[in-house]
Amino acid sequence: MSGVVYWLDMAGVIVFALSGVILACRSRMDPIGMLVLASVTGIGGGTLRDLVLGVRPVFWVTDPTYLWVILATVGVSLMGLHYIHRLSRGFLPIADAFGLALFTVIGAHKALLLGTSGMVAVLMGMMTGVAGGMIRDVLAQRVPMVLREEVYATAAMAGGVVYVALHALEAPLTLAIAASISVTLGLRLAAIHWHLALPVFAWVTVPPKNHDEAATPLSTPQKAKERVRMIRRERKKH
Predict the structure, then answer these.
(1) What residue spans carry the region label Disordered (predicted)?
(2) Which helix (H) or strand (E) segment is 181 a member of?
(3) Domains in the chain: how many in total?
(4) What is the mean pLDDT of the chain?
């Protein structure tokens, strides 16, 4: 079964590296930028996980195959660059969802092998799944999906909980892996298809001063100025 987990890890690296290549193309980056985005997406989450868990050296240092897989993914993508540009906007979130599902179960599995508690294993699974995408989005000057209202980290957490629970019940490893991947992937794809999102909370509400202002929508600069005035009034009260 260790071979199955290893190949699942490689599959996750390929999928996440491809998502980095796609975003690099849409951000008009050169081949070096493409390689950087593919690398941080493919191995960034696992690297952070190993550092937190105290694994030295990290996985891709002991097994450089991961680096060769990323390099091969970028090379093949460059040869098919014309087709990548023609991919729909929805392909990147779908590819990212598959990578999230694969890396979540890999992270939780490795944490449990190192003897961590179930809660830590769930967090390590989520970290492995979301950290690489966060770094990718920041480098591409986008707000990371995990920081928006999208069902993203929630899906990873749910998949990690399923894996840890089945592991505690001594279920077969194949069943635990399949169930975890199915839950994470199912939740993420459902969120993409039906535009599901978590609630967003705003701590400042600016009421209109009179009926005329309520009827006239404020522009963005006006909203900002009014919000500042509201905050100053609240501070004076306290």
Answers:
(1) 212-238
(2) helix 173-194
(3) 2
(4) 88
